[in-house]
Input
Amino acid sequence: EAQVTQNPRYLITVTGKKLTVTCSQNMNHEYMSWYRQDPGLGLRQIYYSMNVEVTDKGDVPEGYKVSRKEKRNFPLILESPSPNQTSLYFCASSLYSGRETQYFGPGTRLLVL
Amino acid sequence: DQQVKQNSPSLSVQEGRISILNCDYTNSMFDYFLWYKKYPAEGPTFLISISSIKDKNEDGRFTVFLNKSAKHLSLHIVPSQPGDSAVYFCAAITTGANNLFFGTGTRLTVIP
Output
């Protein structure tokens, strides 16, 4: 089954404790992206990747890191999480670019205390 | 600064009637627009898209209209069904770029 998976689905952590949210797709897509969803702000893009070792900033990259060492995986790293990073995070992938249909993962709900 | 705006946070419509969801944008360089639908506890799913060279695109019950001069697009759902109840996001992107800008979303409730 074609899908985008994210882990964990729910995470509670404390300020400053490094964490990684994993994202994996099995569709051989080149484009992958991370978004956060917040009330009243909708979805905002954090980072995206056009292919292995090619990443670029989205609208709200501050406080986040990403890496793309393999085509299928695109982890989101919060080196020193803060309460304002409490949010619902989505990973997505598409064949080549952001202009094409993106397939989203189920989301990761993060609470930073 | 929000470049894509959906000014109606919510909309309620009777089953069988038309639902019209609106979206405004400020960046005149946007040339491709998409609508995504999101159910609770799921990721968004693609619904329909439109290029700026068109002013209308239709797919079954869903039609998107684009008014470039007004920097406005709308999604029409006819007839509306209870299963259409979801949050709808519009999104926009410019040529040559790969970062996508989403609106704030409109929660549609279709009343049986």
